[in-house]
Amino acid sequence: MNEVIIATKNSGKAKEFIQMFESYGITVKTLIDYPELPDVEETGETFAENALLKAESAARLTGRPAIADDSGLVIDALDGRPGVYSARYAGIDKDDKANNRKVLKEMAEVVDDQRSARFKCVLAVSFPDDRESIIVEGDCEGRIAYEESGTNGFGYDPLFIPEGFDQTMAQLEPNMKNEISHRAKALRKLQVSLTELDGGMK
Ligand SMILES: O=P(O)(O)OP(=O)(O)OP(=O)(O)OC[C@H]1O[C@@H](n2cnc3c(O)ncnc32)[C@H](O)[C@@H]1O
Ligand SMILES: [Mg+2]
């Protein structure tokens, strides 16, 4: 495999996948390269259901294996919200600024030791033939800051302080995020699953 399709229209995710796959010598194409493909409605109740919906649709429509990422932020003090609704938490889809403001407001009165949270990433690989889809997941533990800091990354990165750091994900170098992130952990598991398939990832 020297090219892979990632079924995402999120440019932040796309950039990270391009960087992470570089080390395997694999070129990444995303749905940004296939503007004619229709949007998939994320009607699932779990990250896995939504990842599968996106991967199956892309594999069917492109005729090639496709990987989809469904991910989000799970905050303990908010009973797991924003969770699967992370992209549209403040109402409008993919308004990162508004989503971050809403989370900060809801977390304003929450004390230090109750600010635990994790990023979750579920990756699904689907095939255009009758091979079964593969699902893997990765978590990144951390806590919610009191204000936004940093400009790297995307989404909730300016609010999220990963375990073992005193800076937000948006203040870390992209290479560091791509070592420790939920997405990196899921991708490492996928590498293991894919090497068991014909051809593998190399
Ligand atoms: O469905 P696609 O096209 O992949 O793009 P999306 O942005 O809609 O992606 P999701 O449905 O998986 O929603 C995930 C949301 O969770 C947040 N998120 C996911 N991974 C993140 C990360 O690494 N850093 C910060 N926020 C993240 C971000 O707000 C995303 O919009
Ligand atoms: Mg989405």
From TrEMBL:
Protein name: dITP/XTP pyrophosphatase
Catalytic activity: XTP + H2O = XMP + diphosphate + H(+); dITP + H2O = dIMP + diphosphate + H(+); ITP + H2O = IMP + diphosphate + H(+)
Entries under SUPFAM superfamilies matching the protein: ITPase-like
Coiled coil region boundaries: none
Entry keywords, A to Z: Hydrolase, Magnesium, Metal-binding, Nucleotide metabolism, Nucleotide-binding
Role of this protein: Pyrophosphatase that catalyzes the hydrolysis of nucleoside triphosphates to their monophosphate derivatives, with a high preference for the non-canonical purine nucleotides XTP (xanthosine triphosphate), dITP (deoxyinosine triphosphate) and ITP. Seems to function as a house-cleaning enzyme that removes non-canonical purine nucleotides from the nucleotide pool, thus preventing their incorporation into DNA/RNA and avoiding chromosomal lesions.
Entry binding sites for Mg(2+): E41, D70
HAMAP family registered for this protein in UniProt: Non_canon_purine_NTPase
Species whose genome carries this gene: Domibacillus mangrovi
Protein residues bound to substrate: T8, K9, N10, S11, G12, K13, S71, F154, G155, Y156, D157, K177, H182, R183
The organism's place on the tree of life at top rank: Bacteria
GO terms for cellular component: cytosol
Pfam short name (any one): Ham1p_like
Subunit structure: Homodimer.
GO molecular function: dITP diphosphatase activity; ITP diphosphatase activity; metal ion binding; nucleotide binding; ribonucleoside triphosphate phosphatase activity; XTP diphosphatase activity
Active site: D70
Gene Ontology BP, a term: nucleotide metabolic process
Top-level EC class: hydrolase
Protein family according to the UniProt entry: Belongs to the HAM1 NTPase family.
UniProt remark on cofactor binding: Binds 1 Mg(2+) ion per subunit.
EC number(s) from the headed UniProt entry: 3.6.1.66
InterPro entries for the chain: dITP/XTP_pyrophosphatase, ITPase-like_fam, RdgB/HAM1
Cofactor(s) required, per the database record: Mg(2+)
